[in-house]
C-alpha cells in the first residue's frame, strides 16, 4: 500500500544555563515530539517510488562503506571516512579543555564562510558540550483522506512522543547517513555548520541580541536540516534516522563520529581534488551526466552570487532600521524644541510613525534572512553534496576500470604461465582471475547502480528544489506585501496629523 | 511637475508678476555649473522687460555676502546662500562602479550606470532648485528686491568676477567672520529686555542644533533606502541569469521574479528620492534659514551692545562734562538703530515662523501621500507576481 505522508517539523529551543567553568558539560538538548496520526493513506503519492526498492537497497548497506579512496593519491588517508575527517581536522577530540571559552577558537566551518580566527585545539569543545537544548515537534500525517483508515506510518512505534537531542546528535546523525549513502549516490542533506564564537556567547549566558539571534539561526537551520532529511524517502526509513527521532536515550555521539558536516564535505572536496589530480578521463557514455554536472556547476555560481546579493540586502535593511530609529529619536527631540504647537505635535507624530517603521524594517530584515538568504545558503551547501555524488560515481567507475585492467593483466600473466610448468602458480593465477572477474562484475553493477540512483536522486532533487524555492519565495513575497501594507496604514494615520498643522 | 514639488521647500515665491525670476537651464562643465538666470519684469528700473544672464555659484555667494554686509538690511533675515554644487557622491560611486565592472553582467552594469546617472541628475536638479529659490526669496522680499546689487546680478551681461574681486577686497570678509565666531556667545550673553526676543533666542539656538541633527539622520535613512534599491538591481540581474540557464517550466517563474525585482527597485528608488526631497531637503533648507535668523539676532544683539556702550559713554561724558552733545547724538543714533532692528526683526521672525510652518505642513502632507502611493504600487506589483507564481 503506498503511503503519502507529510512530516511537519517544529523545533523550539530552551537553554540550560550553567556556570562558566563547566564547559565540558552537556548543556543542550533537542526535544523531538513526534505526532503520528491515524489517517487514510493516499493512493496518489509523490514520494513513494522508493518503497519497493527499499529492501534491495538495504543489501548494499551491509557492505563496508567502500573505501573508494583506496586508489587515491597521497593526500587522503584511506581507512575509514571517520578517520579521514579526524586526520584532516586536527587533534584528537578526546581533549576536554578546562580553559574558559573566551579563548580564540576556530569555528570548524566549511567553504561557505570566512575563517576569521586562528585555529586552535579547542574547537572540540563544541562537540563535547553539544550546544543548546531544542525541542523538536514532528507531526506526521497523511494529508489526503481516501477510503479506509489505517495507521499511517508503520515506521513509528508510537503515535506521539518527544525526545531531546543535542546539536552534536544532529551532526552525528548526518555523519552516519553520509558515510552510508553518499558514496552510493544519495544526496544526503548537509547538517548546519558549527560556530564556536556564537556558541561561546550562548554558553557564557550572554542574553544579548546577538546570542539570541545566533540561537534562533541555529534552531531554524536544524529544523530545515531535519525536514530535508526526513523528506527523503530512503533516509526516512534508515534505522539511524528512526532511532534519532524515536529513542528516548540516544547513545552519546562518540567524539569520533560527532563531526561537522563541513568536515565531511571538506573530505569529499579533498577526495574530489584527489580524483581530479588523477585526471580521471571517464568515457562518458551517457551525456546526461555531463549535462547535469555542467548544469549544477552553473547553478552553483549563480546561487552563490544571488546569496551574496541577498546577504547585502539583509545588511542594508538592518542599517535602514537603525537609521530610521535614530531619525525617529531626532524628530522627537525636534518636536519638543518646536514652539509652534501644531507643528510640534506633528513632529512628535512623525517620530512615532518612524519608530513603528523601524520595527517593520527589522521584521523585514528577518524575513529577508530566514526565508530568502537561508534558502540560498542551504542550496549552495546542498549543491556541494550533489557534486559529491557525481564525483563518487566517477570513483566507482574508476574502481571498476581498475579491476578490469588488473583482470586483463592477470589474464595475460596466466596465459604466459600456461607455457611454464608451474601448476601451483597456474592454479593461483586462475583463482585470482576468478576473484577478479567477480570484482569486475561487482564493479560494473556498482557503477550501474550508482548511475541509476543518481538519475533518480537528481530528478527528485530538482523537483524538490523547484517546489522549495517556489514555496519559500511566495512566502517571502508575502512578507514584503505585509510590510508595504503596514506602511500604508502608518502613513494614512499620519496624513490627517500633517493636515492638522495650521 | 517635479520642479513644482521641489520649489515647495519655500512657499509664496514668484507670485509677484512685476519681477519673475527662474533658472530655466544650467550646464555642467567639469566641476563648474553655469546657471542661466532668466528675469521677466514690468519694473522700469530694469533696462529690458525680458532677459537672461549666465551666472556661476560664486556670483550667488557674492550677492549674498554683499546683502549680509549692508547695514540697512541688518534687521532682515537674509535668505541663506545656496550650498556649493556637490557631485562628489555620485562621482565616487561611478568610480567604484567602474572598478567593479568585471564582477557583474553587462545588463547589471548598464542598470547600475543608469541609476548613477539618475543620481547625478538629481543632484544637478537640486542645486538648480536651491539657487533658484535663493533668487526668488529676494525677488519676493519688499526691501531686498530693490537692492542695487541684486539688480546688477540679474542684469549685468558681463562677467561678474571682476566686481566680485573688488567687493572681497573692500570688505575682506571681515564682518562675516566676525558674525560666525561671535554669534553664539554674544546672543546668549546679552541681557534681553524684550520677552519676544528672549523666547526667540532660546528657541532658535536649541532648534538649530536639533534640526541639524535631524537633517543628518534623515540623510542616512535615505541613503540606506538607496542601497536597498541597488541590491534589488543585483538580485534581479542574477535571477535573470538563472532564468536564462533554466530549461524547465521554472524558467518562467524566474523571469517573472526577476522582472518583479526590477520594477520593485524602481519604486524603492523613488521612495528614497521623494523622502530626500520632502524630508531631508526640507530640514536642510530650514536649518540654513534658522542660521540666517540667528544672524539677525546676532546683529540685533550687537546693536543692543552698542546702545549700552553708548549709554555708558554718555554717563562718562556727563561726569566729565565733556563732549556731551556728541555722546547724546551717538546714544540717540544707537537707540534708533536698535529700535529699527527690533521692529523689523520682530516682523521678519514672525513671518519666518509662519513660512516654516506652512512649508513643513505642505511637505509632510506630500511625503505621506507619496509614501502611500509608492506602497500601494508595491503591493500591486508584489501581489501580481505572487498570483503568477501560484498559478504556474
Automatic annotation (TrEMBL), chain A:
One of its GO terms (biological process) is protein transport. Residues 426-453 form a coiled coil. It is a peripheral membrane protein. One of its GO terms (molecular function) is phosphatidylinositol binding. The keyword Acetylation applies. Belongs to the sorting nexin family. Involved in several stages of intracellular trafficking. Interacts with membranes containing phosphatidylinositol 3-phosphate (PtdIns(3P)) or phosphatidylinositol 3,5-bisphosphate (PtdIns(3,5)P2). Acts in part as component of the retromer membrane-deforming SNX-BAR subcomplex. The SNX-BAR retromer mediates retrograde transport of cargo proteins from endosomes to the trans-Golgi network (TGN) and is involved in endosome-to-plasma membrane transport for cargo protein recycling. This is Sorting nexin-2. It comes from Oreochromis niloticus.
From TrEMBL, chain B:
Keywords: Protein transport, Transport. GO terms for cellular component: cytosol; endosome. Residues 1-160 form the PX domain. One of its GO terms (biological process) is pinocytosis. It comes from the Eukaryota. One of its GO terms (molecular function) is phosphatidylinositol binding. InterPro entries: AH/BAR_dom_sf, PX_dom, PX_dom_sf, SNX5/SNX6/SNX32, Vps5_C. Pfam families: PX, Vps5. SUPFAM superfamilies: BAR/IMD domain-like (SSF103657), PX domain (SSF64268). Involved in several stages of intracellular trafficking. Belongs to the sorting nexin family. PANTHER family: SORTING NEXIN FAMILY MEMBER, SORTING NEXIN-5. This is Sorting nexin. It comes from Oreochromis niloticus.
Amino acid at each position: 500500500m503506498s503511503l503519502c505522508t507529510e512530516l511537519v517539523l517544529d523545533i523550539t529551543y530552551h537553554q540550560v544555563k550553567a556556570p562558566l567553568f563547566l564547559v565540558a558539560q552537556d548543556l543542550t538538548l533537542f526535544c523531538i515530539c513526534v505526532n503520528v496520526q491515524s489517517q487514510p493513506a493516499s493512493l496518489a503519492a509523490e514520494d513513494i517510488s522508493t518503497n519497493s526498492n527499499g529492501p534491495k537497497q538495504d543489501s548494499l548497506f551491509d557492505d563496508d562503506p567502500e573505501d573508494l579512496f583506496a586508489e587515491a593519491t597521497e593526500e587522503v588517508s584511506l581507512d575509514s571516512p571517520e578517520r579521514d575527517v579526524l586526520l584532516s581536522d586536527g587533534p584528537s577530540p578526546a581533549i576536554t579543555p578546562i580553559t574558559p571559552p573566551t579563548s580564540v577558537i576556530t569555528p570548524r566551518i566549511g567553504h561557505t564562510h570566512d575563517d576569521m580566527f586562528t585555529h586552535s585545539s579547542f574547537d572540540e569543545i563544541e562537540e563535547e558540550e553539544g550546544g543548546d537544548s531544542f525541542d523538536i515537534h514532528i507531526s506526521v500525517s497523511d494529508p489526503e483522506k481516501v477510503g479506509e483508515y489505517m495507521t499511517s506510518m508503520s515506521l513509528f512505534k508510537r503515535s506521539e512522543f518527544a525526545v531531546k537531542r543535542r546539536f552534536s546528535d544532529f551532526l552525528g546523525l548526518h555523519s552516519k547517513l553520509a558515510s552510508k549513502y553518499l558514496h552510493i549516490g544519495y544526496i544526503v542533506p548537509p547538517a548546519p555548520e558549527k560556530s564556536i564564537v556564537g556558541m561561546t556567547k550562548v554558553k557564557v549566558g550572554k542574553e544579548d541580541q546577538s546570542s539570541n539571534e545566533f540561537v534562533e539561526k541555529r534552531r531554524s537551520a536544524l529544523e530545515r536540516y531535519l525536514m530535508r532529511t526526513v523528506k527523503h524517502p530512503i533516509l526516512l526509513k534508515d534505522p539511524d534516522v528512526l532511532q534519532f527521532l524515536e529513542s528516548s536515550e540516544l547513545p552519546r555521539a562518540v567524539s569520533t563520529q560527532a563531526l561537522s558536516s563541513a568536515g565531511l564535505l571538506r573530505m569529499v572536496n579533498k577526495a574530489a581534488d584527489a580524483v581530479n589530480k588523477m585526471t580521471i578521463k571517464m568515457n562518458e557514455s551517457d551525456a546526461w551526466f555531463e549535462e547535469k554536472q555542467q548544469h549544477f556547476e552553473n547553478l552553483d555560481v549563480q546561487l552563490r552570487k544571488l546569496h551574496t546579493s541577498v546577504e547585502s540586502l539583509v545588511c542594508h535593511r538592518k542599517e535602514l532600521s537603525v537609521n530610521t530609529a535614530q531619525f525617529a529619536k531626532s524628530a522627537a527631540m525636534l518636536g519638543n524644541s518646536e514652539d509652534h504647537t501644531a507643528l510640534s505635535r506633528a513632529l512628535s507624530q512623525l517620530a512615532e510613525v518612524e519608530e513603528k517603521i523601524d520595527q517593520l524594517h527589522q521584521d523585514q530584515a528577518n524575513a529577508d534572512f530566514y526565508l530568502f538568504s537561508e534558502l540560498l545558503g542551504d542550496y549552495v551547501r546542498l549543491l556541494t553534496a550533489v557534486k559529491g555524488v557525481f564525483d563518487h560515481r566517477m570513483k566507482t567507475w574508476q574502481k571498476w576500470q581498475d579491476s578490469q585492467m588488473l583482470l586483463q593483466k592477470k589474464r595475460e600473466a596466466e596465459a604466459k604461465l600456461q607455457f611454464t610448468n608451474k601448476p601451483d602458480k597456474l592454479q593461483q593465477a586462475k583463482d585470482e582471475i576468478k576473484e577478479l572477474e567477480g570484482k569486475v562484475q561487482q564493479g560494473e553493477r556498482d557503477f550501474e547502480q550508482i548511475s541509476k540512483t543518481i538519475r533518480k536522486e537528481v530528478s527528485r532533487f530538482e523537483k524538490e528544489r523547484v517546489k522549495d524555492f517556489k514555496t519559500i519565495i511566495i512566502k517571502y513575497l508575502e512578507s514584503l506585501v505585509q510590510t508595504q501594507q503596514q506602511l500604508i496604514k502608518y502613513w494614512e494615520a499620519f496624513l490627517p496629523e500633517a493636515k492638522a498643522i495650521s | 511637475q517635479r520642479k513644482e514639488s521641489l520649489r515647495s521647500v519655500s512657499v509664496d515665491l514668484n507670485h509677484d508678476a512685476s519681477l519673475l525670476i527662474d533658472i530655466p537651464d544650467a550646464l555642467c562643465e567639469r566641476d563648474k555649473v553655469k546657471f542661466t538666470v532668466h528675469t521677466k519684469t514690468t519694473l522700469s528700473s530694469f533696462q529690458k522687460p525680458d532677459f537672461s544672464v549666465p551666472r556661476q555659484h560664486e556670483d550667488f555667494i557674492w550677492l549674498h555676502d554683499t546683502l549680509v554686509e549692508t547695514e540697512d538690511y541688518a534687521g532682515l533675515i537674509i535668505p541663506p546662500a545656496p550650498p556649493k554644487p556637490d557631485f562628489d557622491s555620485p562621482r565616487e560611486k561611478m568610480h567604484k562602479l567602474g572598478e567593479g565592472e568585471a564582477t557583474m553582467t553587462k545588463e547589471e552594469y548598464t542598470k547600475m550606470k543608469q541609476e548613477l546617472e539618475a543620481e547625478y541628475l538629481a543632484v544637478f536638479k537640486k542645486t538648480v532648485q536651491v539657487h533658484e529659490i535663493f533668487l526668488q526669496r529676494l525677488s519676493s522680499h519688499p526691501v531686498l528686491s530693490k537692492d542695487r546689487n541684486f539688480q546688477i546680478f540679474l542684469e549685468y551681461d558681463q562677467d561678474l568676477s571682476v566686481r566680485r574681486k573688488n567687493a572681497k577686497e573692500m570688505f575682506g570678509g571681515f564682518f562675516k567672520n566676525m558674525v560666525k565666531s561671535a554669534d553664539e556667545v554674544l546672543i546668549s550673553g546679552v541681557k534681553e529686555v524684550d520677552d519676544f526676543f528672549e523666547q526667540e533666542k532660546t528657541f532658535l539656538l536649541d532648534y538649530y542644533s536639533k534640526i541639524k541633527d535631524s537633517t543628518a539622520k534623515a540623510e542616512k535613512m535615505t541613503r540606506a533606502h538607496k542601497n536597498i534599491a541597488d541590491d534589488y538591481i543585483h538580485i534581479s540581474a542574477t535571477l535573470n541569469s538563472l532564468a536564462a540557464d533554466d530549461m524547465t517550466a521554472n524558467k518562467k517563474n524566474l523571469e517573472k521574479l526577476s522582472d518583479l525585482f526590477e520594477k520593485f527597485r524602481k519604486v524603492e528608488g523613488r521612495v528614497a528620492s521623494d523622502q530626500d526631497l520632502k524630508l531631508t531637503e526640507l530640514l536642510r533648507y530650514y536649518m540654513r534659514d534658522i542660521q540666517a535668523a540667528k544672524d539677525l539676532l546676532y546683529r540685533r544683539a550687537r546693536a543692543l551692545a552698542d546702545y549700552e556702550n553708548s549709554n555708558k559713554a554718555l554717563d562718562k561724558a556727563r561726569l566729565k562734562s565733556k563732549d556731551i552733545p556728541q555722546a547724546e547724538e551717538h546714544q540717540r543714533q544707537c537707540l534708533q538703530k536698535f529700535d529699527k532692528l527690533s521692529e523689523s526683526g520682530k516682523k521678519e521672525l514672525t513671518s519666518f515662523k509662519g513660512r516654516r510652518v506652512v512649508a513643513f505642513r505642505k511637505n509632510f502632507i506630500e511625503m505621506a501621500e507619496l509614501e502611500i502611493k509608492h506602497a500601494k504600487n508595491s503591493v500591486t506589483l508584489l501581489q501580481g507576481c505572487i498570483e503568477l507564481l501560484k498559478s504556474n
